[in-house]
Amino acid sequence: MVARTATLSTDAADAKMDRMEPSPPHPPEADAPGSPLETGSSAGKEQGALFDPPEPTAEEIAAGAAMAWEIAAAEDRVVADVVLNKPLMDAYTYLVPENLRDEIAPGRRVRVPFGRGPRGGRSETGFVVAVRPVEEYANERGSKPERLKTIDRVLDEAPLVDAKMLELSRWIAEYYLCGWGQVLSSVVPAGVKRNAGTRELVFYRPTETGRAALDAGSLTKKQRAAMAAIIDAGEPVRADYVASKADCGVGVVTSLKHKGFAEQVRKRTDVTEFDDVAIEPWEELVATDEQQAALDTILAALRGQEYATFLLHGVTGSGKTEVYIRAIKEVVEYGRQAIVLVPEIALTPQTIRRFRQRFERVAVLHSHLSDAERSKHWRDIAAGRVEVVVGARSAIFAPCQHLGLVIIDEEHESTFKQDSVPRYHAREVAEKRCREAGVPLILGSATPTLESWHAAQEGRYRLLSLLRRVGKLPLPPVVTVDVRNDPQVRKGRAIGRQLSNAVKAAIEDGGQVILFLNLRGFSPAVWCRACGASLMCPDCDVSLTWHRDKGRAVCHSCAHEQTVPRACPGCGAHELKYVGVGTQKLEEEVKQVFPDATIARMDSDSMRKPGSHDEVLTRFRHSEIDILLGTQMIAKGLDFPNVTLVGVVDADTQLHQPDPRAGERTFQLIAQVAGRTGRSSRGGRVYVQSSNPAEPAIRRAAGHDYLGFVADELRDRWDMSYPPYRRLCRVILRGPDEAAVKRRANEMANALSAAAKSRNLPVQILGPAPCAVARLQKNWRFHFQLSAENPADVRSLWRTVEPEFPTGGDVDFVVDMDPLNMR
Ligand SMILES: Nc1ncnc2c1ncn2[C@@H]1O[C@H](COP(=O)(O)OP(=O)(O)OP(=O)(O)O)[C@@H](O)[C@H]1O
Ligand SMILES: [Zn+2]
């Protein structure tokens, strides 16, 4: 069942979150107080977790833990299994003191003593995952109930997660090789834990003496009025309500309480209020034949209450959203709830409006919510007050009690995978959740991942296709421009002659233009003409990007910023040049070339303020902007009928990344951005500038040839033994001392390799080798990968060897199951 782990995980993003226990590891100890659950895994039984809390001292036992055990009546004693926010799979068992018996329940958080030290070490917060009779625990091999430590406090008034979510979070911890408590901590939003947006309010109700006193006429005039108001309300009321009803001060209510005529009741109440959003009317559409056929298949699964994953492959503008909405309609009619996951960037007013127009009760979970808002949504969802949850990745954990359907739109987006612990992919979690709930999952995309496409070919997913755009609109013609011979590009311009003529024509014609360039900043490199070196970040193996607006060279991998030196730090020559074009430089060029056009730039630098993204898109929609240029922020999901031209300024930016998915990403981006035009009878065209026009990803994207692309690409993946044919688990090691990191990488890889051989597990170890970014934030980085056909083999190997991994020193590691980020 539960395997034992002590996973280190310390990549940049999560270094703070999941730092290893600072205390030194101590000898394996299967029966320490608060000892791990017996797990049934052989590894678990033989090897204690590395970070069990130490045994208590005699004083500690005398002081508390042992007493609680002795005092409680035998039949009453219960223990609780608690998981902490640490890279440990195990739960620790604690005794539940008598006074907390009624409060303790799985899914609530508790404070518990943990670790060595006076009075049982530090106090930690954990989630209760099980409550059971102490006898059951006492019967476990090696348990010592008399040594159990005691729970200090219960933190929550109600469980934060239900049994299903506990189970799902445990599955995530097992699959993604991290701690169960880490998953739970990240699943429940911070605001929910703090009960943000709720307050404990005091209400008053009459007592019998109070009623008698009123009848007996023994109250003052004001007290009489207040008492009558309290009684008339028929339910506990707030003091200010009484004050306004009885036209008295709140002091009168307090005095009634003091005299025993009224008593207080405390209730936790929502205090956040939300504005109602104005909803524009909408016209009922007639589904196309393709939409109807896809929908019929989905409805059959919904009516049969069966789990199935549907891959809805629909070309851009084929009306996938309409299919989602109709499927959700059905689910809502059953009184069930639907979850719709979209990439964060797609959480635009346009998306939200589409759902709000069609459903009464929609909760939108985006990253700009305050803790109070998020927590309010969470409670509304859990109470069944919400029909549809629309949100980014983490909305997959929405506490829907009657889940009926999950949809992942733009399933190819890599943001569905979390880049910090727990490193889950929302698609995998959704699959698991839907399977358990017996409900369908729909994955929609114009450019599905090779993983999903392959699953559909194998019959694990059911393929639904929308091959035509709605309204019989054609996909836009795409012209690939070889910029190697373009006279303007040779002069250093970003926009070549053909594209610039096309922009001019489109604007003169009253159309709008999208220009896509996936590099932010002004110039992506500062380069020495004398020695050929680029200016590098002192802390990372990354070249600095020139940001002219700041007057500084900036590292896009860390916070480093600096001025540009006069002389090359390598050779001393005064020959430093800004090379290449980022979105800022593109903006300047476009302003020069099209001085009369209104231009907006959209990238993470220009869109720092919350809401600015929405604001620009609204202006664009109202045709107040002629040319919208930017990074992938503008490439996705937008549905603007007046866009008659899309220009891909440099199709090659992703192509040469040392990443086996470089081709797939290039294809997806070009196909998606090309799909933003030709969405009305005005038509549209696409120009793709490239220095590698023959590259299959570019050629296929220009031909709208997804099927051709996946056929080629799958063949390559097979030849390379790469996903979707194999599953990978990437282990990254990092530390300030290069030799130590390398040594540790070798030790770990060797240990895994030896164990794979001796246990006959079909897992290959690839590497170790330096990472593509060999140094990041002052740390040297090495990685290796475990590759297997079956991810269970990887898991099993990892969990066996993990307790033996050397710890301590300055080397940390990160485990990334099904990695997408290969830097
Ligand atoms: N049956 C229909 N009849 C008329 N218009 C429709 C129909 N279905 C969808 N539409 C409209 O077609 C447009 C494109 O639909 P939608 O945005 O859902 O496409 P999509 O498949 O999600 O495209 P993309 O992948 O490019 O985001 C929208 O404006 C939508 O309102
Ligand atoms: Zn850096």
Describe the structure.
The chain is α/β, with parallel strands linked by helices. The protein folds into five domains: 177 residues, PriA, 3(prime) DNA-binding domain (GIY-YIG endonuclease); 73 residues, Orthogonal Bundle (Arc Repressor Mutant, subunit A); 178 residues, 3-Layer(aba) Sandwich (Rossmann fold); 186 residues, 3-Layer(aba) Sandwich (Rossmann fold); 91 residues, Alpha-Beta Plaits (2-Layer Sandwich), CATH 3.30.70.600. The protein has 25 helices and 29 strands. The strands form seven sheets. Strands 10-11-9-12-13-8-14 form a seven-stranded parallel beta sheet, sandwiched between helices. α14 links the parallel β10 and β11. α4 packs across α5. The chain is globular. The N terminus is likely disordered. The site of zinc ion has 8 residues, from loops.
The general outline is globular
Instruction: Identify every distinct bound molecule in the structure, by name, code or SMILES.
Output: adenosine-5'-triphosphate, zinc ion
Tell me the major beta sheet.
7 strands, parallel
**CATH architecture assignment of the largest domain:** 3-Layer(aba) Sandwich
Q: What features would you highlight for this structure?
A:
alpha/beta, 25 helices, about 800 residues, 6-stranded parallel β-sheet, binds zinc ion, isomerase, 7-stranded parallel β-sheet, Rossmann fold, Arc Repressor Mutant, subunit A, Replication restart protein PriA, GIY-YIG endonuclease, binds adenosine-5'-triphosphate, single chain
